[in-house]
Amino acid sequence: MTLAAQLHDLAVDIAREAGELARRRRTEGVAIAATKSALADIVTDADREVEEMIRLRLGEERPGDGFLGEESGAAPVSHGGDSDVTWVIDPIDGTVNYAYGIPSYAVSVAAVAGGSDPEHWEALAGAVFNPASGELFHATRDGGAWLHDVRLTVTAEPAAAGALLATGFGYDPATHASDLARVGRAMTIARDIRRIGAASLDLAFVAAGRLDGYFERGLQPWDFAAGALLVTEAGGRFSRVEMPDAAARPLAVAAGPGVFERLLSLTTE
Ligand code: LIP
């Protein structure tokens, strides 16, 4: 079995196990543990518990790998080592949905190669699991993207009515005006816009052909590491573009071949 296949199977197992814990904690009631970058940027006790569970499982299975988690940052999985693999984890992507009881959240697990610098990372395997819907999206580099055992393909061309697009907004209110202006430009090729609230699910839905495209500024590696692999393995394109303004909020764009260039042009004007 190839390394990518081994990492894929572990990512799927961990995503399922972590998702079940998140789902159980949701039924028990969610406590906000703290706010982070802005008042609206919350972390729950479950976020932290799920990430720690993932870290412990990876410590058992692959102690020499690297680890980057949304809640605990970058560190070796366990005692460090010479592994070239890093696990990139969003324990509960869509935390605000999770806190409000909106069933659109996911555990995002990606295994990347390329050392410690995210700029050099190449995703080898990824899993995005929504415990509320039971949907598990997964991919292996050069092995395709899947929803359970169904192979995924992005849409080749949008319908005549226009593209069904998705986007998201940062937690900082100061970014909303420019983000909304970007939505206005994207609407010139859209039939409608969706704001699902979890980047990993937005990307999984592009891979599944449920969305024709997705764009959002300010995503972190844990938001997109697994979802971007789903998109590219489903025949789509994913780019992350530095924007000309001062804010360090690169724009992520994902779409099938019939939409990508137009969406990229409109959203980076
Ligand atoms: C969320 C992203 C979403 C974005 C939110 C937030 P989190 O990640 O998945 O696309 O719009 O602002 O960043 O914080 O729930 O892990």
TrEMBL record:
What is the enzyme's class at the highest EC level? Answer: hydrolase
Q: Which Gene Ontology terms cover its molecular function?
A: hydrolase activity
Extract the InterPro entries matched here. Answer: IMPase, Inositol_monoP_metal-BS, Inositol_monophosphatase-like, Inositol_monophosphatase_CS
Q: Which UniProt keywords apply?
A: Hydrolase, Magnesium, Metal-binding
The record lists the catalysed reaction(s) as:
a myo-inositol phosphate + H2O = myo-inositol + phosphate
Q: What is its EC number?
A: 3.1.3.25
* Required cofactor(s): Mg(2+)
Name the family.
Belongs to the inositol monophosphatase superfamily.
Q: Please state what the protein is called.
A: Inositol-1-monophosphatase
